[in-house]
Amino acid sequence: MKKRNRLRAMKKRQRMVLLAVVAWIVFGVVAALVIVSRTTEEDSGVTVQVTPAALSEAAVKGEAVFNANCAECHGPNAAGTNLGPPLIHDIYNPGHHSDQAFYLAAANGVRAHHWPYGDMPAQSQVSREEVGLVIRYIRELQEANGIVAKSY
Ligand code: HEC
């Protein structure tokens, strides 16, 4: 009788241990999945679908300047990458980020404030005139994608 009780107690303990092990494995797998999904989210950054626009002559020139100096971070068509935000985004509509914000960004860089990418380094190799062409390019793309001035 006593022996049977002890046996039963041992089996119960074994079951508890097994349950604990299973619980830990489940916990580990869930935690790993959460971490993986978080990091892939961060790694891929924010990108948007951009509809190409029929560009003016100035904007075509701006696109070339943009591709050479800005697309590395802001992506082709300014759609964003894992290094910088999309500029074809409502945050950058002309009412919220005027042309002046673009001149300042290129001349002085930008301290991270809207996004988790970090600071934007100054792009002093790009002249003010060239930045003006980039602005034409971004504004025409924005307009083609329904991003228009809003007052704040
Ligand atoms: C090395 C990466 C990198 C390059 C190259 C780069 N940018 Fe940026 N840019 C960023 C990041 C990151 C931000 C977002 C900062 C934030 O708001 O958190 C940003 C923000 C901006 C902003 C928003 C400024 C504001 O006031 O919030 C503008 C405009 C901009 N970039 C334009 C440009 C232009 C034009 C070029 C090319 C001449 C360029 N960027 C090149 C990384 C880059």
Give the cofactors and ligands. Answer: heme C
Report the CATH C-level class of the largest domain. Answer: Mainly Alpha
How many H/I helical runs? 5
Along the chain, the helix and strand elements come as HHHHH
In percent terms, what proportion of residues is strand?
under 5%
The CATH level-2 architecture of the largest domain is identified as: Orthogonal Bundle
Largest sheet: none
* CATH homologous group name of the largest domain: Cytochrome c-like domain
Helix content: 55-70%
- CATH topology description of the largest domain: Cytochrome Bc1 Complex, Chain D, domain 2
* Whole-angstrom Rg: 27 Å
Overall tally of structural domains: 2
What's the total count of β strands? 0
Principal-axis shape equals rod-shaped
Whole-Å distance between the termini? 82 Å
List the helices and strands and how they pair.
Layout: H1 2-44, H2 57-69, H3 71-74, H4 99-108, H5 128-144
Folded structure, characterized:
Helix 2 crosses helix 5 (128-144) and helix 4 (99-108) crosses helix 5 (128-144). Helices cover 57% and strands 0% of the residues. It has 152 residues and is an all-alpha fold. The structure holds heme C. Heme C is lined by residues 69-70, 72-74, 83-85, 97, 101-102, 105-106, 110, 112-115, 117-118, 120-121, 123, 126, 134.
